[in-house]
Amino acid sequence: MIPAVMPTYARADVAFEHGQGAYLFDTGGRRYLDFASGIAVTALGHAHPALVAALTEQAHKLWHTSNLFRIPGQERLAARLTAASFADTVFFTNSGVEAWECGVKMVRKHFHAKGQPDRYRIVTCSSAFHGRTLSAIAAAKQEKLVTGFGPQVDGFDQVAFGNLNELRAAITDRTAAICVEPLQGEGGIRPATVAFLQGLRATADEFGLLLFFDEIQSGIGRTGKLFFHEWAGVTPDVMCLAKGIGGGFPLGACLATEAAAIGMTAGTHGTTFGGNPLAMAVANAVLDQVLAPGFLDRVAAISGVLWERLGHLVEAFPEVFCERRGAGLMLGLKCGPPNGDIVTALRHENLLVVPAGENVIRLLPPLIIDETHVETALAALTTVATAKSAASTEGAAV
Question: CA angle 110-115-120, nearest 5°?
Fold first, then answer.
């Protein structure tokens, strides 16, 4: 018999009752160091006092009015996001894939408004993940995502991630945009090189395309800058955000330049719940923290400590952890044993991490961690690596 909760997740048998800072507590009172952050969502940890205060204050005032009326919190948040980024305008959604879908629609509408409706195709990259809608899985083209959901939505041409020559060869007179995660998350914590990102910008300019970045997981301070693409000194024309921007409250955003958004006029797109007063109150509180002087510098500093310690771990246990990857506090370890086994073993050591493609585990701690959290995490990783290494040695001897 099918359970009341549809069984689309292979859930771990643990339920959490409350959280505080970088820690979660299950219903039995057991404490876990949370280096999963709800898949890079709880950027400021659990029960952050500023976020709790903002949500509580707004909850006593107003929850929902719809977008048929002005929402002052949207206006404030949009002004702050545009001031801190390349963008001129923002559309607020409830989730990352909705923000990504908004970007896809914007790309198509842009060229339609310019009298070029045949230019609608978007070049995407292998190992990408943009969400679970029909168009998002068609863009990613991963077998595990698309099987059983055909026919696939047309309009996406995939090339190898990081291969600029292959990408350029895929451009036709129907190409409208290039869509890339500058730092792939679910695909295995794979950062694009500076040269690749700069090449994407140059290619988009050369062929008159829009450059569309998906920073749903890598944005809002996770890599030590507000957005990962800043490390390459390039800017996109369209960008989708989610996860950390709401600090745990469901929220997404699609940012764009004025030129890219020329077709997005009244009636072309909408959402009932997106940008509601509750979400806006929390997101503005998140930005208060992330944009505060010194915050991103502290993220960069602690990420350097974690990166160095992970390097020592890989050197000590190469048969268990083959490679460290990533940037900032969006890091990965490529595993020798199955990554699912490592995730489970770490949970038994009270450390929560997230699996990813290419047999990688993701380390996505809240941005507020300090060196004590790094040491606790490394102790758990070392314990698991020692046990897996010993088991591997015994197996080889037999």
Answer: 50
Strand partners, 395: none
Question: How confident is the chain (398 residues) per 10-residue block, as mean pLDDT?
Answer: 95 97 98 98 98 98 98 98 98 98 98 98 97 97 94 97 98 98 97 98 98 98 98 98 98 98 97 98 98 98 98 97 98 98 98 98 98 98 95 62
Domain 49-290: which topology?
A: Aspartate Aminotransferase; domain 2 (3.40.640)
Helix (H, G, I), strand (E, B) or coil at 275: coil
Tell if the pTM clears 0.90, that is, is over it.
yes
Choosing among 3.40.50.12780, 3.90.1150.10, 3.30.470.10, 3.40.50.11720, the CATH entry for 16-34+293-397 is 3.90.1150.10
10: exposed, middle or buried (C-beta count within 10 Å: 0-12, 13-18, 19+)? exposed
Answer for the pair 104, 135: CB distance below 8 angstroms, yes or no. yes
Amino acid at 53: A
The distance in angstroms from the start CA to the end CA of the chain is 43
Report CA dihedral (15, 344, 215, 111) to the nearest 10 degrees.
Answer: -90
Beta carbons within 8 Å of 224's beta carbon, 6+ residues apart? 296, 297, 299, 300, 303, 327, 328, 329
- Length of the chain measured in residues: 398
Residue 159's DSSP bridge partners are 125
